Amino acid sequence: MLTAENLKKAYGSLQAVDGVSFRVGPGEVFGLLGPNGAGKTTTIGMLAGLVAPDSGEVRIAGHHISGDTSPQKRRLGVVPQELALFDELSAAANLALFGALYGLSGAAAAKEQDRVLTLVGLADRAKDKVSNFSGGMKRRLNLAAALMHDPQVILLDEPTVGVDPQSRNAIFDNLETLKAAGKTLLYTTHYMEEAERLCDHIAIMDHGKVIATDTVAGLLRQAPVSSFVLIDLVANDFANLVEAAALPGVVSATLSGRQLRLGVQSMGDLPQLLRWLLSHGGEFEHVQTERPTLETVFLHLTGRSLRDA
Ligand SMILES: Nc1ncnc2c1ncn2[C@@H]1O[C@H](COP(=O)(O)OP(=O)(O)O)[C@@H](O)[C@H]1O
Ligand SMILES: [Mg+2]
């Protein structure tokens, strides 16, 4: 449905996007995941036809997009990272403006306006000025604006940044509704929990390049560990961390305060690990396990944490 082929964009000597390729199937939710500065917004800009690539191609349903008047652009809805709303106008007036950009007016515009306001849960706020909206409500209206012309493919750039948890959940629900309606969604985020929850396929970007792309399950299989074991030690005088890290089946070992965190290849090794601990001054009072996440995969691939990057 949406194809990026070897997209490149430089700003001066900075290669913001450096040969990005991927395919998004119809009805799929595709996540572009990466730290700030990875090149996500620039990639979205090229997909939307708003940023001219230095090289490479974008196709929507097999058609090239070229020029501002390309009819293929009507198939696209773009939800920008920066809000694109007029604060002094009502929600309805904002939507009327967006509708007009796509040639909607009169009864047709009013119908779409009702549809998108209902979708994002703001039907009762149509007449309110946007300046009275919370950050989360503005984000939801920003999404509604991109949907006025009922696009098949929706590009969303960090739609949940700076949003309260309640609005974030509302936006998730909106995205799930759009997916259920058969829309194709491409979504950027630097929150890996979100990407894990929403996306069918993910491309992890770093420094302008796609460093891994797969299903969520496929990416998680790239993690170097099958589980983390979090062991709360009774005392914080455990002196055998280096030896613990060298045990068979242990990939990583860190100690923070009294909590020992072991990355292990197989949970089958756990009983002997715990026995080893008890016989090496590592008496413990609580043990829990944690699955690897996309954060683990990013750390493994780049040596950096997605959160810190
Ligand atoms: N218009 C621009 N002019 C100069 N540099 C830019 C411009 N847009 C983005 N960049 C730079 O390109 C890199 C990628 O930016 P961006 O695509 O916004 O990344 P992301 O959305 O992943 O945070 C960053 O280093 C950013 O500073
Ligand atoms: Mg961005």
Summarize the structure.
The chain is α/β, with parallel strands linked by helices and 309 residues long. It has helices at 40-47, 91-101, 106-119, 135-146, 165-180, 192-198, 216-220, 241-245, 270-278, 294-302; strands at residues 2-11, 14-24, 29-33, 55-60, 63-64, 76-79, 153-157, 184-189, 201-206, 209-215, 227-233, 250-256, 259-264, 284-290.
Description of the molecule:
By secondary structure, the protein is α/β, with parallel strands linked by helices. The chain has two domains: 2-219, Rossmann fold (3-Layer(aba) Sandwich), CATH 3.40.50; 227-291, 2-Layer Sandwich (Alpha-Beta Plaits). Helices cover 31% and strands 29% of the residues. The chain contains ten helices and 14 strands. The protein has helices spanning 40-47, 91-101, 106-119, 135-146, 165-180, 192-198, 216-220, 241-245, 270-278, 294-302; strands at 2-11, 14-24, 29-33, 55-60, 63-64, 76-79, 153-157, 184-189, 201-206, 209-215, 227-233, 250-256, 259-264, 284-290. The strands form three sheets. The chain has a six-stranded mixed sheet, with helices on both faces. The chain has a four-stranded antiparallel sheet with strand order 2-1-4-5, with helices on one face. The protein is elongated. It starts with a strand and ends in a 7-residue tail after the last helix. Magnesium ion binds at residues 40-41, 81, 157-158. Adenosine-5'-diphosphate binds next to β2 and α1.
The rounded Rg comes to: 23 Å
Task: Give the C-level CATH assignment of the largest domain.
Answer: Alpha Beta
Strand content: 25-35%
- In CATH, the homologous superfamily of the largest domain goes by the name P-loop containing nucleotide triphosphate hydrolases
Proportion of helical residues: 25-40%
The H/E string reads: EEEHEEEHHHEHEHEEHEHEEHEH
* Strand line-up in the sheet with most strands: 6-7-8-3-9-10
Q: Averaged pLDDT, please?
A: 91
CATH third-level topology of the largest domain? Rossmann fold
CATH architecture of the largest domain: 3-Layer(aba) Sandwich
User: How many structural domains are formed by the residues?
Assistant: 2
How many strands? 14
Small-molecule binders? adenosine-5'-diphosphate, magnesium ion
